[in-house]
Write a structure and sequence with these properties.
Helix 1 packs across helix 2. It contains 10 helices and 4 strands; from the N terminus they run H-H-E-H-E-E-E-H-H-H-H-H-H-H. Strands 1-2-4-3 form a 4-stranded mixed beta sheet, with helices on both faces. With 299 residues, it is mostly helical. Helix content is 68%, strand content 6%. The protein starts with a helix and ends with a helix. It has one domain.
């Protein structure tokens, strides 16, 4: 019962975080749109344009973002006859977690990695690399799947997909605003009536456009790290064998070629570990593997 209540609390926190995130990004979009409007001497034009672009982008990406992520990652849906041991593991842990069994996908890649995506448990999926299936034993695979199942159970997947979508909107509008500033330079020189206030707002807007993606990336990384620790802990509870995941992470750490060929910066936080060869700790979306292993071994 204690674990059940904890899961409900985690879902509630994720829903609150998601709503706060949407509000913050709406403010970001509004500011960027207003500055775009100032460049063209019509604040309302920029504001309305940015909101329309933002809403269309959000609707498309949020409704089909998981499919886009799977497509970009080169993942293919597999059947039970293809990987029976994977399906048995997923189905068993789904029952233990009290959620519908996620769909299974496989990336043909020698790197050892996995991720979960979707907007809710009913349409979630778990993706693993072929390398992971070849190298891990049953207990280790169970630990990795339990980690991803925990992300699904607590609706981390909804929040992480939302972060991917909204960062994309801010980056898109910021780039559009900077290009508009360059294209609109001549018209501003012909119109000197805007005054110093307009110039200050434009400068602030440019700084905002440059810094906002960096700030949102830092926020994303900080939250992703916390969620990885939480998912590790809940995976240990689901399997009742913390060393399964700990040993899996040890093998992942020793992977000589951890690069997932089709991974990118927008989706890196979805994976169970960094899908790149070398990442500065400042820009890492995951906590250090050594620390994660240490915490699991202490359970």
């Amino acid at each position: 019962m204690k674990q059940k209540l904890s899961s409900f609390e985690e879902v509630r926190k994720n829903n609150i975080l998601s709503n706060v995130l949407i509000f913050v990004f709406i403010v970001f979009i509004g500011i960027l749109g207003s500055v775009i409007g100032l460049i063209y001497d019509n604040v309302y034009f920029g504001l309305v344009l940015s909101l329309i672009i933002g809403m269309i982008y959000f609707a498309v990406m949020y409704s089909s973002g998981d499919k886009i992520v799977l497509g970009l990652s080169g993942a293919r849906q597999v059947e039970k006859r293809d990987y029976p041991h994977l399906f048995h593991t997923v189905e068993g842990l789904a029952v233990a977690a009290g959620i519908p069994a996620p769909k299974c996908y496989v990336i043909n890649d020698s790197a050892l990695n996995a991720f979960a995506t979707g907007t809710k448990p009913e349409n979630a999926s778990i993706t693993v690399t072929s390398g992971l299936l070849e190298v891990l034993n049953r207990e280790e695979l169970e630990g990795v799947v339990a980690h991803e199942m925990s992300h699904i159970k607590n609706q981390d997947i909804k929040y992480m997909l939302l972060v991917t979508v909204l960062i994309g909107i801010v980056t898109l509008l910021g780039d559009f605003m900077l290009r508009s500033f360059l294209w609109g330079g001549k018209s501003r020189k012909r119109n000197e009536n805007g005054g110093q206030l307009q110039l200050i707002l434009i400068v602030v807007g440019i700084a905002f456009a440059i810094l906002s993606p960096i700030v949102t990336q830092i926020i994303r990384m900080a939250i992703s790290r916390k969620k990885e620790y939480a998912a590790d802990a809940r995976a240990a509870i689901l399997t009742r064998y913390p060393m399964g995941l700990a040993n899996a992470l040890k093998k992942i750490k020793k992977d000589p070629d951890p690069l997932v060929d089709k991974a990118n910066r927008a989706t890196a936080h979805l994976f169970i570990s960094e899908p790149f060869r070398k990442v500065s700790s400042l820009f890492a979306t995951h906590p250090p593997l050594d620390e994660r292993i240490k915490r699991l071994e202490a359970m």
